[in-house]
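Task: sequence in, structure out. Protein: ATP-binding protein.
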Amino acid sequence: MATKFSQSVNIIRDESKSLDYVSTPNAEKVALQIADEFKKGIHSFTLIGSYGTGKSSFLWAFEKSLKNEADFLPANTGLDPSKTNFLKIVGAYQSITEHFREVLGLKKEDPANRNILDTLNQEYEKTSSLVLYIDEFGKFLEYAAKNNPDKELYFLQQLAELVNDQSKDILFLTTLHQNFEAYGNKLKDQERLEWKKIKGRFKEITFNEPVEQLLWLAAKKLASGKTPKSFSGSFYSDLAAKHNIKDFSEEFRSVIENEIYPLDVISGMVLTLALQRYGQNERSLFGFLELEAAESQRMALPAVFDYLFKNFYSSLQSNTNPHYGSWRMMERGIERAEFELDDPATAIDLIKATGLLQVFVPTAKIDEKFLKGYFKESLSAKKIIQAIDQLSKRKIIVYTRYNQSFKLIEGTDLDFDQAILKAGEAVDEIRNLVPLLEEYFEFPVMQAKEVSYKTGTPRLFDFQITEKPLVNYTPEGPFDGAVNLIFSESLKEVEIESASTEQEEPIVYGFFKNTSEIKDSLFELLKTRKVLAENSDDIVARRELEVIIKSRQSLLQHQVMDAMYSGKVSWIYNGKKRNEVKSSRSFNKLLSEVCEEAYSKSPRFINELVNKDKISSSIHTARKNYFKQIVNHWREKDLGFEEDKFPPEKTIYFTLLKENGMHFKAKSGFELQAPNDKNGFNHLWNASDEFLKSTVDQKMSITKLAELLSTRPYKIKQGLIDFWIPTFLFVKRAEFALYNKDRFVPHLNDAVLYMMTRNPQDYSIKAFQIQGIRLTVFNKYRELLEQAEKPKLSNGAFIESIRPFLVFYKELTEYSKNTNRLDSTTIELRKAITNASDPEKTFFEDFPAALGMSIEQMDDNEKLVQEFFTKVNDSIDELKDAYSNLVERIDLYLRNEIIGTTKVFPGYKKELQKRFKNVKEHRLLPKQKVFLQRLQSTLDDRDSWIASIAHAVLGKPLDRIKDEEEELLKDQLSRMIQELQNLSSIHHSQKADDEEFVKLDITTTSEGLTENNIRIPKGKKKEIDSLVEELRGKLDNNKQLKLAVLARLLKDELHGKG
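Result:
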C-alpha cells in the first residue's frame, strides 16, 4: 500500500494503514521515556498536548514499533510482540464504564465494575502482556466531571490499580489536550482533590511540539537545496534575537535557518504559533507545506497573514477567537491605509507584520530598525520611514515607550505615556504590598510529593503572604504547613532566620530581595489602572490600556513567580538558609523534608480512599459497613469478608488492621490487638493509649483525641481519624466507660461507632482505675451479687455488676420507688440507683456517699468495708420490703381498728362477708357496689385481697399510692365499712319497695346514741314536699341555725317530746 500523509489519525480506523509518519526528536524522546519508565515499574502514562500535535499519530507509530512492524520510534519496552494483546479505545462523551462494557461486549451492569476488571485481566492473561490505549481520554473526563464524578473516578482508580500492578506486564497510554486537573476545574473543592489524586496515578508526559520542533519538521519537509544564495537565514535569526522575538540556539540555527526557505525563522515561527492556535499544529503545517510552500515563492510575514486570512477566516472572525479584536484592528487598519494613503502597499505590509507579531509575539520590539531590516529585500528604507510617519499621524500605529515597540491602534487622542506619568501624582504611595499581591496572585496549594508518595498521606502547603515572618500559625484542616512569602524593604535575612529558629511549626520562609522592584511594578500598575478608570469611555484607549496592564501584570508575574527559584528569593527553614532550592523540584523536596521532620510519628497508610481530609459519599457507606464487620465478625478471619469480593471496606480492613498486625489468629480464634511497628501505627496507638489513661480522673471528649492526632508529630488526615479512633476504642472497649451527652453507653455497637464519627462532640470516655481499694470494693459488690471475682475492672464487668441493681430497681413497685417511710440511708441509696448512669461513679462514689462514707475512708479499713456492705444489704432489704410493710399496716388497721378481732386472714375476711350478707347489691351506689364485690371475692391471698379493696376505695392500685394517701385509705375503708353496716340494717328492715327507708342515728352528750328507722311511703311524697317548703320558708337563711333547729326537732321526736 502506498504511504500517504493523513491530516487526522484514528488509532482504530487507521490500524492497518501505512501512513507517512515523520518522527521528531520530541516524539523519540517521549517514546524513550515511556520505555524506560515502564521498565522501572511505571505502567500508566498520559500524553498531554494541544490539538494537532500528533498524539494520535504517535500512538499509531508506537504500536507499529512495539509490534516490530516499523522502526518509527524507539519502543524497547521489553514486551514480546508475539505475546502482547492490544486494546484500543477512542474517547467519547459518555461514561467510561459504559464504554468499556460496550468494547468488551459486557451487558450486565456491575456497580463495583468487577466484570470489566475481570475481563481486562483475562485479556492480559491470554498473552501474558497487554497494551491499553485510550486516545481522546479527555472526552471521558469531560463527561465524568458533569455526571457522577465519584463513580467515574472510582473506576479510573480501580483501572489504574490493575494496570500498575508490577507483577503484570500492562502498559496503559492515554492522550489529553490539557492537564488532567483542568477537566475538573468546576468541581467542588473536595471533588477537585479527588481528581488530583487520580491524576497522580498517571505519569504525565508533555507532548506539545515546541516551535523549534515544528520548524524543524518544516525544514525537513522543505529541504530541497533550492534556497537562493541571496537569502541569509542567519540574518533573520539574528534579527529575531535582537528584537525579543526568539533567541534560537546555534545548533538549531545551523539546522533550519536556511532550509526553511521560502519561510524565514520569524515568519515560520509566527505561522507555527498561528497554526497551533487556529489549526491543528502538525496537520495544518504539513498541509501548508504541501500546498502553499511548494511554489517556492518567498513567504515573509505579509504572506503568512494572507494565508491565515484566506484559510482560517471563519476562525479569525469568530467571537470565540481570543485574538478577534486584533484581527479586526488589522483589517480596519488595512482598509484605512487603502483609502487614506496614495501608495498604501508598503503601509499594508507594515500593518500585517506588526499586527501578527503583536498577536503571537507580544514581547517583540517592533521599532524602525526592525522593520527596515526585515523588509530590506522588498522595501526601501525611505518607503518604510514614510509609511511609519503616515500610519503614526493617522493613529493607525503608535510607538509605546514602556516596551519600545510599534503597536496597531484604532485611533485616540490620549498620550499614554504622559497620562500614566501624570497619574503618579494622584496615586498614593504603596505602604503595604500584601493586599495588592493577594489581589493579583492566587497561589496554588502545593503538595510535598516525595513524602506524600512514601507515606500515603497527602501533605499540603498553603501560601501565606506577609510583610513580617509568620509567627502565630498552626496548620489546620487539609494543610500541613505554610510557605510564607515575605515582602519587605526593611527586614534583613538574619531577622527571618532568627524567627525561623524559634518557629516549631512546619513553615518555610521565602524572603524576596527584589521587593523594591515589585513595589515599583505595582505602582506602575496602579497608575495605569487609574488612567484606565479615567478614560473608560474611550474604547480605543481602553483597549490599549488593558494591553499595557496585561504587560505590567506579566512583568509582575515574572518578578514574583519566576523569581521563586532564582537568587532573588532566599529560602529559610529552621533558622538556616536553604541554598539548594534552585527549582520547583528542589523546593518540593525541601517541603518533603520539612514534613518528615514535623510529622515523624505519622504512619505510612497507603489508602487513597481514606487517607484524606474529606472522604467521598461511597466511603461513608464503606465506613458503616466496616464498623458492622468489626463489631459482629472480629472473631472471624478477615472480619468475615467474602474471599472473592473486594468492597472498599475490605480494602480498608487490609490496609488498616491486617497489614499492621492488629487482627491476628490466636489459639481460640481471631483477636484484636495493638499494631506492630511496621508502618508506624504503633505511634498512633501509644498516643491514643496515653490519652485513654489520662481520662482516669475525669471524662474527656473524643474530640480531644482527634485534636491530638491532628497536630504534630502525627497530623493524620480526618478520613483516617474517623476510622482510627472508633477502631482503637473498640479494641480497648473493656477499659473505659463511654458517654453520649453525659449518658452512659453500655454497649459499643456499630451504630455507636458510626455516630462517633458524625457527632464526635457528643461522645466522651473515662478510663477505669484498676487497682487498690476500688478493685477490692468492686469484688465485694460482686460477692454481694453472687458473681465471680474479677482480677481487674472492665466495662463488661461493670455492666454485669450494675445490671442487677438496675433490674432490682426496675422491678420495685411505684410505692417502693417513691415512699419516704424508709431509713434516710435507704432513701439515699435508692436515689443513687435511680440516677445511675456511670457504673464506676455509682459504685465508688454515689453508693458510699448515700451511706455516709467514701471510697477513700475504706482504703486499708476492712472493718469499714464490711460495715458498708452490711448497710447496703440492709437498705436493699428495706427497699424490697417497703410494699409488703404497707400491706401489713393495712391488715393491722382492718383487724384492730375496723373489725376489732384477733382473727387473722382469711378469718376476718369471712367475718366481714357474713356481716354484709343482707346488703342488697342492686340498691348500692357504684362505688359501694364495687367495694362489696371486692370484699366478697374468693381471693385467698391476703396481699391481693387487700390491694383489691384498697383499689376500690381510692380508685388507684395500692402499689402506686403516695405516703400521704395511706391515712386517707384507712379513713375511707372505715367509712365505707360503716356505710355498708348502715345499709345492711336498712335492707334488713325494709319490707317493700313502695317506701323509702332512712336509718337515723343521733348522738348527744347527755343521752348518748338514739337510733330510729323511718319509713317514708311514696304516696305521702307530695304532702312531705309541701311541708318541707313551708318549713324552709319560715327558717332563717343562716345554715348553722337551720341545722340546730332541725336537730332539736329530730331529737324531740325521737324521744317522744313532740
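The chain is about 50% helix and 10% strand.
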